[in-house]
Design brief:
CATH superfamily of the largest domain: ABC transporter type 1, transmembrane domain
Structural class: alpha/beta
Number of domains: 2
CATH class of the largest domain: Mainly Alpha
Oligomer: single chain
Distance between the termini: 57 Å
Number of helices: 21
Number of strands: 12
Helix content: 55-70%
Strand order of the largest sheet: 8-9-10-5-11-12
CATH topology of the largest domain: ABC transporter transmembrane region fold
Shape: elongated
Largest sheet: 6 strands, mixed
Strand content: 5-15%
Radius of gyration: 35 Å
Length: 654
């Protein structure tokens, strides 16, 4: 597979042999997320100083016990020092609990801030972003990478500061005790940093591979475990195939995890051996000097204890640059999403759209789906990979057919493949009128309707509501005036009431019931065991197609928009559902400006204006009778398709 989980190192990594580097701009931005927690960080620093100070006391107490207290038989001093040895761990225990509490507050607070910022940015992304991005990749950013970013602030930075303070303090005390032994002890430091650089870099590369493998595994699981994917797997009998695919990706995660664990152990074994070399030198030479009466046994014992603390701190510092740079990977992956520009944004000074009558005008509108990857998650170079991989593009970058125009297959006279989705579209619909869009599959009907609520913006021309350009009004006020029912109705995995309230959060039960009665679904809901508290299931799969459509119509009625955009369902419905939906449609469209992708003959006959669209252009316009007389595309569609629809619509009345 050429697909790897996302990341945003394109601005920092230019070749496979380059290593991650922390820029000042990046570091400054990371630190802005810790700014709200300044007091917690100051408290943590204070506690670090306390634990460092108490840690320095222990070897000095041991030296005093060995050199003075025990040889002189001072019992009171012995008791005092023994109690002190007990008190220091107790104090350190309390301090560690407080430090961990502050650390957790900072870490979890940063996770919260990043997640909310990331989710808020994703909510403002255009429809194009979601049609080109794997949901598993976004979940990986929202969960794994945010936690990795938390680790950078709450663990890596804290560890760096702690080790720096401890190393400096211990080194000063050691030089005060015996500077000759100190020099002997630190002579192996270059080997420390060499080992940390080599094995630490290897660990970093394996960690990146594990993140990639996790992202691929999550993306695959999301695609096959949602209700649509699960249904497809079952219908085609591909359970074993999908299990094998998942096993292969999980195997990658397992194998990289094993390599990471083994390399980690090797790293600590080598560091331990180097520490042993330094300790052996100090005790060997120090022991000789004790024999020569250059200094006391207590001093060499204390010095050995300090040396262990110094090596521990230096080990952390030696690996800190790699640890820190690696933890910055997560921040960059999060920042990449946060920094994506919003394609559909409000103009400065955008006005609220209100008192709308519903006068809709398309003024020479053209639109094309961008084929490039601009404003999407970037194509990046991964550490440890020779090939360039796409972070989250699910295809070649072009708009998928399913979103290019979502109609079911219809009779078509020529291929609809083209570069421009909509080409110089111009028409107007007066307040309260019904405009029906007809044409072959892929002609551009769904795309045209997506421009009305600004799911996309035209590349040329403008769309006006009551004489106001859509780009000059606020997005929320525009959404409030437009009700859209798509062909594939989406319901949340929640109660019927919650799904209906999505249209108007403050609606009363009486208003909800009035809407469902208008949509001919109230009687059905009241027949359910839990009535309006019935869970509809994932994407509403516990309901039939007709029931979902009527709930969607009730939701729009509850919203009470001035402009209705409707993609009539083409799925086969039983005659009773068809009749109920037809009656509900008449109620919901009454008095509203309606733009309907028409599949039913009754809608076409009721239309004030029929727009025939072919290859992104309006090729015919007029009424049903007038268009039949022209003998063009509409007449062909009527003869081949709508006549069948008429037979289906008339059958219940026979």
């Amino acid at each position: 597979m050429g697909m790897h989980g996302g990341g945003s190192w394109s601005g920092y990594i230019r070749a496979t042999d380059e290593k991650p580097r922390v820029t000042w701009a990046l570091l400054k931005r990371v630190l802005t997320y810790s700014r709200p927690y300044r007091r917690h960080l100051i408290g943590m620093l204070t506690l670090i100083l306390i634990t460092t100070g108490t840690g320095l006391l222990m070897p000095l107490i041991l030296r005093d016990l060995i050199d003075h207290t025990i040889p002189t038989g001072d019992m009171s001093r012995l008791i005092f020092l023994a109690l002190t040895l007990l008190l220091i761990p107790a104090v350190n225990g309390v301090v560690n609990v407080l430090q961990r509490q502050l650390n957790a507050r900072v870490g979890e607070g940063v996770v919260y801030d990043l997640r909310v910022a990331l989710f808020a940015r994703l909510q403002r992304m255009s429809l194009r972003f979601f049609t080109n991005t794997k949901i598993g990749e976004l979940m990986s950013r929202l969960n794994n990478d945010v936690v990795g970013a938390q680790n950078a602030i709450s663990n890596t930075i804290v560890s760096l500061v702690t080790n720096l303070i401890q190393a400096a303090a211990v080194l000063i005390v050691m030089l005060t005790l015996e500077w000759h032994l100190t020099l002997i002890g630190i002579i192996i430091l270059p080997l420390f940093f060499l080992a940390a650089r080599q094995l630490g870099t290897r660990l970093r590369d394996i960690s990146r591979q594990q993140m990639d493998a996790n992202a691929r595994m999550n993306a695959m699981a999301n695609e096959t475990l949602n209700i649509g994917g699960a249904l497809l797997v079952k219908l085609f009998g591909r359970r074993d195939v999908e299990v094998d695919r998942f096993a292969a990706r999980a195997r990658e995660v397992r194998d990289t995890g094993i390599r990471r664990a083994v390399v980690g152990v090797i790293f600590f074994v080598i560091i331990g051996l180097l520490s042993a070399v330094g300790t052996a030198l100090v005790y060997g030479i120090g022991g000789y000097l004790v024999m020569q009466h250059a200094f006391t046994i207590g001093t060499i014992i204390a010095f050995g204890s300090y040396l262990g603390n110094l090596y521990s701190a230096l080990q952390g510092l030696a690996n800190a640059p790699v640890d820190f740079a690696t933890s910055m990977v997560s921040f960059e992956r999060v920042f990449e999403v946060i920094d994506l520009p919003t394609e559909i944004s409000e103009q400065p000074g955008a006005r609220v759209l209100q008192n709308v009558t519903g006068d809709l005008v398309f003024d020479d509108v053209s639109f094309r789906y961008e084929a490039g990857a601009e404003n999407l998650l970037a194509e990046v170079q991964r550490f440890g990979h020779m090939d360039r991989v796409k972070a989250a593009l699910s295809g070649s970058g072009s708009e998928p057919n399913g979103h290019r125009d979502g109609e079911d297959e219809e009779v078509t006279t020529q291929s609809q493949a083209r570069e421009v989705a909509l080409d110089h579209i111009a028409f107007s619909v007066k307040p309260g009128q019904l405009a029906a869009l007809v044409g072959p599959s892929g002609a551009g009907k769904t795309t045209l309707t997506y421009l009305i609520p600004r799911l996309y913006d035209p590349v040329a021309g403008r769309i006006l509501i009551d004489g106001r350009d859509l780009r000059d009004v606020t997005l929320d006020s525009l959404a409030a005036q437009i009700g859209m029912v798509t062909q594939e109705t989406h319901l949340f995995h929640d109660t019927i009431r919650t799904n209906l309230l999505y249209a108007r959060l403050d609606a009363s039960q009486a208003e909800i019931e009035a809407a469902t009665q208008a949509a001919n679904i109230h009687a059905f809901i009241m027949g359910l065991p839990n009535r309006y508290d019935t869970i509809v299931g994932e994407r509403g799969y516990r309901l039939s197609g007709g029931e979902k459509q009527r709930i969607a119509l009730a939701r729009v009625i509850l919203k009470d928009p001035r402009i209705l955009v409707l993609d009539e369902a083409t799925s086969s419905l039983d005659s009773e559902s068809e009749a109920l939906i037809q009656e509900a449609l008449k109620r919901v469209m009454a008095g509203r400006t309606s733009i309907v992708i028409a599949h039913r003959l009754s809608t076409i006959l009721a239309a004030d204006l029929i727009l025939v669209i072919d290859r992104g252009q309006i090729v015919e316009r007029g009424t049903h009778a007038g268009l039949l007389e022209q003998g063009g595309l509409y007449a062909h569609l009527y003869a081949t398709q709508f006549n069948r629809a008429r037979t289906q619509e008339l059958s219940p009345q026979r």
